[in-house]
Amino acid sequence: MTKPPDKSVEVMPSFAQLVSGLTHQLNNPLAAILGYAELVMRRDLDAETKEMIGHIHRQAERCKQLLHTLNGLVRRPSQGLYPVDINVLVRETLESKAAELAGSGVEVLSYLHPGVLAVTGDAQGLRQVLLELLENARAALENRGDKRTVSVRTKVAGGEIVIELEDNGPGIPEDTLAHVFEPFFTTSKEKKAGLGLTLCHSILKEHSGSIDILSTLGQGTRVRLHLRQRTEPAPAAASSTSATANLSGRSVLVVEDEPALAQLLTNLLTPLQARVVHASDGAEALRLIRAGDFELVVSDVQMPGMSGTELYRQLSTENPGLARRMILITGDSASERSQRLLEGTKAHFLYKPFSRAQLLEAISRALAG
User: How far does Cα 251 stand from its chain's mean position?
Assistant: First the structure.
């Protein structure tokens, strides 16, 4: 059984600055590409067009995951720690990956412990771990000719919640297994960055949890995630459908200086029967808020003039109820300045590039106060 080393990955300041600058420059156009591709795929298209749009979306997702992984080596942004039902998280993650796994001929078997399995955690971070492990399992099964299966189990043991993913792939050689948690180590034919398991270890460590891998050549690989169980149960998880219902007839203020992203957010929110109003900076948003009645504010962080965090602080004084229903969107998650700004608020965060499901999840949290 292989566990990651105890020592944390050290990153040079110059590399951290490079990642921060690269992330800031790429996240806006990448968010627009992903968002519009997802919107187009929801339309009634012919099979060939839908397949081409699907290729665009998948390649953009690869870029997104690489940026997230690089950010994780510098300083992975937390979406905040909330009660999380692990069974709900596992089911939703499997649903999001179902089409891709089925397209690769992989059968997923899930065995979830009955009831609520509650932890205190960052749902997006934990989902990222599960997606990384499912992708690793899918890749390991590519060359298997017969039945390809991935089993996912949840259980409770000794005050811990254990998530176990097991594939029936070729297994990992012992000399390779000893290096899988090292940064930039990869055996992928696609020459991936080799940062996925390093990030998984980092996220589990933030949750005071752990990850270990057991693999036997010719028999497959088993990965176990250990998380501390909450003494109090998690509340019922908000789903995309509940977020949709909650937005019906409500006024939403979108504060975004980038026209493509402002239009994307409008296109995502309007079908939810929300009344969407746009402001191009914090000062304009504040004037609209003082003159109107909004249920939700979705604001970029970095804008000319008044920033999103400055707008939040002003609302905290003038309209604290609305401040609690504010979502701050940022793509500069790696920089220390950005982190200090975000940590100084109690707003809800959303990191670029985001999916429709992640936007709905953030809206559900914000509307719940």
Answer: 26
- Tokens for 327? 């979502």
Total Cβ atoms within 10 A of residue 150: 25
Q: Per the structure block, which two tokens stand in for 343?
A: 């940590």
pLDDT in the model for residue 339: 53
Q: What is the CATH number of domain 82-228?
A: 3.30.565.10
Quote the distance between the C-alpha of residue 51 and its chain's center: 24
What is residue 343's predicted lDDT score, i.e. its pLDDT? 58
Predicted model pTM: 0.55
273: which DSSP letter?
Answer: T
Helix (H, G, I), strand (E, B) or coil at 114: coil
Query: Is cis: bond before 353, omega within 30 of 0?
Result: yes
The CATH number of 240-367 is: 3.40.50.2300
End-to-end Cα, the chain, rounded Å = 43
Identical fold, 82-228 and 240-367: no
Which residues partner with 119 through β-bridges? 84
